[in-house]
Write a structure and sequence with these properties.
This protein is α+β, with helices and mostly antiparallel strands and 535 residues long. The protein is built from 21 helices and 21 strands.
Length: 535
């Protein structure tokens, strides 16, 4: 959008103009962005008058718009961008643009979903909030649980929620609320009664067994994937806020460090990343089908975590678009998580899990074994690219914080030496602006070294000569095939976080080396080690 288009933009719910010649209250700005996002998105314009004919006044407000954008995103949990304009006479105009809210979730600031009523900002009407929660389809968690009373909820779980909400919002008022008012403000109870969300998040054991026996989470530790009893098993039939921390503590009890070398130092990295584990559990509780039989299973292995939950993906969601579609099957639960800061960026917890895998040079998560009746999320936690990890640790944390998920996936592919020749050069632009990579019309490379890759229509020669850790890739594939029979390129691509094309090239070398056999036809090929005893 140009400056002239802004001056002639139609009035309505999608634009807000402020003179803001010297300063501007960013909390007020966050409320306007919340209201616009709840209407489908819009722009907050600083430095232009509101009344027609609009005039460019210029604004000195928000001198560091990057920091302001981070503040807005931290508070609203949706994508916010900015654009700077300069008039012919030199006046500065700053525009903040917010995307529309995710399906099934209103965008809130300080616990309130804001709405435009004429020229005024008001809390979103209750009927509109209910309609939003119902958008993603039927929201079981928002239904009233007939017969359930507030006495059936566990005070310890409720106080844990209160503590998180108060600390996250820095809102002292939350501490003064009665239990009933706290739950009403969180929409856990309404005038019609106590919701299923309240039972799932705060319920006592006996009411859960009576009203919703499927709301169970089972933790298992297994030293191997062999069938048989688990080395440890703990069943949780209580409110979520009473088992959220204990499950992480169980995982962390067996959380051994892995190590990588950074110049002359050998540094540790935990096998199980706390943020990823917690996000995976939140994702399961938010998205499982509570009307379908079965429990959520959290299975820990030495270097792998599997979280399996009843109910397949929502309609329209696949493993290919899961990072782009953010819908909550249980919108009321997701909204309560959002209030106390557990749900990041309006349901983008899966994006954070992918980003963390790249940060720690681990395989990307995968959903092998999922079907129409269950979602099976696997976090492979073995560091497979130690050199990549050392390079990632050299990148400034502030730069990592402003990278998108696509930036992370692209950077991981660059460090792994994947073929970049079919990648749109425009995708490299943001990483180059952050000075994380250097690229030209011929090649791309990390700014801190390690690999140079051909892009565009360059010959394969440059790309073929430069990939790092090709020997390591072979060894990782051989290690994987030692424990798995008749594997596919798709399995190996998910495990190693590489493209299927790259995997096929490495497998061809292993076949030529006489280490691996290719089975079946090319299109449906499977691969197996020739002789495991010789490895």
């Amino acid at each position: 959008m140009t400056l002239n288009e802004l001056l002639n933009a139609p009035e309505g719910h999608h634009f807000e103009f402020k003179k803001a010649e010297n300063r501007y209250d960013i909390d007020e700005g966050a409320k306007y962005l919340s209201a616009m996002s709840n209407r489908g998105g819009g722009r907050l314009v600083l430095g232009i008058t509101d009344k027609r004919p609009r005039k460019v006044m210029g604004s000195k407000a928000c001198p560091q718009p990057e920091s302001t954008v981070r503040y807005f995103m931290d508070k609203l949990r949706v994508q916010v961008d900015f654009q700077l304009f300069q008039s012919d006479s030199g006046e500065r105009v700053l525009v903040f643009e917010v995307v529309g809210r995710p399906v099934g979730l209103p965008v809130q600031f300080e616990g309130i979903a804001w709405w435009r009523d004429g020229e005024s900002l008001v809390p979103m009407p209750e009927n509109i909030r209910r309609a939003i929660y119902a958008e993603g389809g039927y929201d079981f968690s928002g239904d009233i649980c007939k017969g359930l009373t507030i006495d059936d909820l566990d005070l310890t779980a409720i106080e844990k929620f209160r503590d998180r909400w108060q600390k996250y919002r820095d809102n002292k008022r939350v501490a003064t609320l009665s239990v009933e008012q706290l739950l009403r403000d969180a929409d856990a109870i309404t005038d019609d009664g106590v919701t299923n969300a309240a039972l799932i998040l705060f319920g006592k054991r006996t009411p859960l067994l009576k009203y919703l026996p499927t709301a169970e989470v089972v933790f298992e530790y297994r030293s191997s994937e062999a069938s048989g009893p688990a080395g440890q098993r703990v069943d949780y039939r209580e409110g979520f806020f009473n088992y959220y921390d204990p499950i992480w503590e169980l995982v962390n009890n067996r959380n051994e460090d892995q190590h990588y070398q950074d110049r002359f130092a050998v540094l540790p990295v935990p096998t199980f990343n706390e943020r990823s584990v917690r996000e995976a559990l939140l994702n399961a509780v938010c998205h499982r089908n509570y009307q379908q039989h079965g429990s959520i299973f959290v299975r820990q292995y030495n270097k792998k975590l599997i979280i399996e939950s009843p109910g397949g993906f929502l309609p329209g969601v696949t493993t290919e678009n899961i990072l782009d579609i953010h819908e909550a099957r249980n919108g009321r639960i997701a909204a309560i998580f959002q209030l106390c800061g557990l749900v990041e960026r309006s349901g983008q917890g899966m994006n954070l899990i992918y980003e963390q895998a790249v940060r720690e040079a681990k395989p990307l998560p995968h959903f092998i074994g999922s079907d129409d009746y269950r979602v099976k999320l696997t976090l492979e936690c073995k560091i497979i690219h130690p050199k990549m990890l050392a390079l990632m640790k050299q990148i400034d944390e502030k730069k990592l914080d402003v990278m998108s998920t696509d930036d992370y996936l692209l950077l991981g592919a660059i460090y792994r030496g994947e073929d970049m020749r079919e990648i749109d050069p425009a995708r490299f632009k943001h990483l180059a602006e952050l000075e994380i990579i250097k690229f030209s019309e011929h090649s791309v490379e990390p700014a801190n070294g390690g690999v140079i890759l051909a892009i565009g229509n360059q010959s394969a020669t440059l790309a073929d000569k430069m990939p790092i850790e090709n020997a390591d890739r072979k060894q990782h594939i051989v290690d994987y095939m030692t424990n798995h029979e008749n594997v596919t390129t798709n399995q190996l691509a998910d495990y190693l976080g590489l493209s299927q094309r790259t995997i096929r090239n490495v497998l061809k070398e292993l076949v030529d080396d006489g280490l691996v056999d290719r089975l079946d036809s090319y299109r449906h090929a499977k691969y197996a080690l020739k002789n495991k005893t010789n490895l």
